[in-house]
């Protein structure tokens, strides 16, 4: 399970969280493993059955106003009881002034207390987006990911089958490289899988005989992109004489990635076959399918109608139309 420490959340700069540490530095090694957050309102009122200590706990204007209405000794008792549940952290929003007793309880209990300038609603949206990005399942796989006609096409196959060469020809046609060799795959809600390159390999491609090429430098920024939703998986396999390959395309095949079933095709590679053209046509065909047009099934339905009509005419020619 992917986890983030509170220190990593505090150090995050690109997400715009704008967090500062007020107290409880000893607890910065605590971790968060779920992208959902929780506001402490009900827990402060005594309803602790739904308290989830592993979530980030938000203290907004309403919660602070509620605490100010309590006698201080009672508020201290409530917060001490909550902190005893080993809360991951507390985050105060809107740059509000935090009572000294909250800072002291945070320091004594080892519960990180942070503060942000954002309103609660805005901060919750920012933090949820960040946690979803960082905590949802990730993996790596071998292949090449290319943006073809707006579709993320993942090319897979054994080493040396021609994945990178196919991708290079697609780039020469104006399409864009996302990642070559090692692809970081990230699941994103509700049921989407994204692919991106590893930091060291970004924008680079290996072509046997030429070595490592920097696609960004060779073709410009228009030939690359940092990440792309994976829409289609194509496996390149070496042609084997006598082996049956799909010739109709009626049956839909899928490839499961992080529980998401993606359209899948297996393309045999042989001398004389222009694989990059076939991959481009596969992408165009997938776009048509997403628009509700399935050419293989339409052809099958047309063929079945012709066969039924021919059988009907044949039966009439033998039996006769006036037979009672």
TrEMBL record:
Keyword Transferase assigned: yes
Swiss-Prot/TrEMBL domain comment: The Walker A ATP-binding motif also binds Pi and PPi.
Q: Which UniProt keywords apply?
A: ATP-binding, Kinase, Magnesium, Metal-binding, Multifunctional enzyme, Nucleotide-binding, Serine/threonine-protein kinase, Transferase
What GO biological process, any one, is recorded here? regulation of carbohydrate metabolic process
InterPro entries for this protein: HPr(Ser)_kin/Pase, Hpr_kin/Pase_C, Hpr_kin/Pase_Hpr_N, P-loop_NTPase, Ser_kin/Pase_Hpr-like_N_sf
EC number(s) for this protein?
A: 2.7.11.-, 2.7.4.-
User: What species is this protein from?
Assistant: Desulfuromusa kysingii
Q: What does this protein do?
A: Catalyzes the ATP- as well as the pyrophosphate-dependent phosphorylation of a specific serine residue in HPr, a phosphocarrier protein of the phosphoenolpyruvate-dependent sugar phosphotransferase system (PTS). HprK/P also catalyzes the pyrophosphate-producing, inorganic phosphate-dependent dephosphorylation (phosphorolysis) of seryl-phosphorylated HPr (P-Ser-HPr).
Q: Where is this region: Important for the catalytic mechanism of dephosphorylation?
A: 268-273
Question: What protein am I looking at?
Answer: HPr kinase/phosphorylase
Q: Which residue intervals make up region (Important for the catalytic mechanism of both phosphorylation and dephosphorylation)?
A: 205-214
Which PANTHER family does UniProt cross-reference here? HPR KINASE_PHOSPHORYLASE (PTHR30305:SF1), PROTEIN YJDM-RELATED (PTHR30305)
Q: Give the protein's cofactors.
A: Mg(2+)
Q: Known HAMAP family for this protein?
A: HPr_kinase (MF_01249)
Pfam families reported for this sequence: Hpr_kinase_C, Hpr_kinase_N
